[in-house]
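Regression test case RT-17, inverse folding.

Input:
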């Protein structure tokens, strides 16, 4: 008897099949939720004494309204998309990974260390940094996984708290042993050699790391939809007790889902230091992990939904930077809009057994 038949015969239950393309009703709910969030946001802006139409015009012109803005949205898609996948993969087995921010930092740190101190030849720096970033982010998520599987510690709490540890860990190195001795006394590491920088393939700043996003999204879709691993992961996420009774190693799936998610966030950190920054510095992430978390939930943990959510948040992020200059609005304005959109989408979702129900 196959695993699927075993589960069905014992429990009369089918795991959720919600990792395919977004259905039409989900897209309609998405659009309605975004529209409702924009309406509430407009009321808040109006109460502040600003014309909401001016706000929309400024954000549009600064993001999708110009070639530079569109390129910057694609730049944001790289960390947003990878950090969103770091949430979506554990979500398949019923886990909530809020640690993308810390895993991003550790991935950036590990990749930087490999570039600066490995002594590898130039041709090997990018592959080595990629592996180091994935290993760093995966190892950091592995701490959460061990606490969850062995200690039954809630992964949402432990991953969130470890974010702050990771940030201070990186700060220690850039303010201390890795600080560039030949620099202008800033808390930066030494500049990376040119061979360690990802090539720009579009515009002025869209690096080859955008290929990482495309490959990761396709790989996650294919694995979760068409493989035994994906099927068993959905069983675990839908009903861990059913999975355990069917002979699925639930603890192993929980552990590796978190590790793989952390590795993807670590690759996002590697992409940031090798594609944009060219060195390690404090504040390397502008809440990329948290925005990725919002994008994953907004997109229903589906690859296509994640892309749409990341593009939306990328446009809001790029356009929101201009609000402070053009309309004298506080920097937190865009965060309010992002939160309203998330609340709107979550409120409009149907209750289901799977993650995010």
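Golden output:
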């Amino acid at each position: 008897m196959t695993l699927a038949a075993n589960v069905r015969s014992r429990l009369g239950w089918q795991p959720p099949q919600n990792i395919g393309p977004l259905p039409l009703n989900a897209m309609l709910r998405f659009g309605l939720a975004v529209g409702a969030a924009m309406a509430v946001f407009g009321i808040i802006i109006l109460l502040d004494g600003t014309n909401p139409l001016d706000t929309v015009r400024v954000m549009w012109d600064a993001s999708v309204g110009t070639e530079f803005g569109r390129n910057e949205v694609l730049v944001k898609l790289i960390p947003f998309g990878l950090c969103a996948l770091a949430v979506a993969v554990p979500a398949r087995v019923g886990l909530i990974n809020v640690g993308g921010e810390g895993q991003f930092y550790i991935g950036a740190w590990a990749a930087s260390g490999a570039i600066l101190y490995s002594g590898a030849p130039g041709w090997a720096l990018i592959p080595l940094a990629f592996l180091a970033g994935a290993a760093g982010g995966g190892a950091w998520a592995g701490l959460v996984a061990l606490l969850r599987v062995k200690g039954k510690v809630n992964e949402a709490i432990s991953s969130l708290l470890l974010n702050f540890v990771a940030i201070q860990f990186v700060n220690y190195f850039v303010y201390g042993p890795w600080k560039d001795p030949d620099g202008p006394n800033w808390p930066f590491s030494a500049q990376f050699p040119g061979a360690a920088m990802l090539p720009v393939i579009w515009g002025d700043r869209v690096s080859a790391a955008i290929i990482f996003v495309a490959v990761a999204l396709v790989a996650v879709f294919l694995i979760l939809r068409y493989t035994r691993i994906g099927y068993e992961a959905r069983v675990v996420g839908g009903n861990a007790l059913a999975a355990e009774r069917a002979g699925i190693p639930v603890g192993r799936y929980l552990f590796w889902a978190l590790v793989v998610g952390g590795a993807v966030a670590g690759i996002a950190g590697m992409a940031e230091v090798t594609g944009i920054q060219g060195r390690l510095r404090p504040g390397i992430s502008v809440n990329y992990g948290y925005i990725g978390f919002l994008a994953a939930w907004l997109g229903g943990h589906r690859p296509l939904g994640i892309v749409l959510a990341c593009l939306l948040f990328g446009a809001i992020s790029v356009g929101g930077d201009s609000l402070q200059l053009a309309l004298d609005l506080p920097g937190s304005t865009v965060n309010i809009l992002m939160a309203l959109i998330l609340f709107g989408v979550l409120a409009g979702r149907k209750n289901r057994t799977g993650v995010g129900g």
